[in-house]
Specification:
The chain has one domain. The model has no long low-confidence stretch (mean pLDDT about 95). It is built from three helices and no strands. With about 70 residues, it is mostly helical. It holds the Pfam family YgaP-like_TM. It comes from Novosphingobium hassiacum.
Length: about 70
């Protein structure tokens, strides 16, 4: 798996999980959705992504978006 795919999959899991938690547990979990969205937005401008750094350290092969 490439780094880009790993980051996008992780972001998708976080967003969907936080929406499910907000629906079935407590609406405050929507803040996690907002945080994930804000992090994806800033990563698109700056190229800085903490999840990409962690996946790199775990040995995931680099992709095109996150070098």
């Amino acid at each position: 798996m490439m780094l880009d795919a790993a980051v996008f999959r992780f972001a998708g899991i976080v967003v969907l999980a936080s929406l499910a938690l907000a629906h079935w547990v407590h609406p405050a979990f929507l803040w996690l959705t907002a945080f994930a969205g804000a992090n994806m937005l800033q990563a698109s401008f700056t190229g800085f992504c903490p999840a990409a750094m962690i996946f790199k350290k775990l040995g995931v092969r680099p992709g095109n978006a996150f070098n």
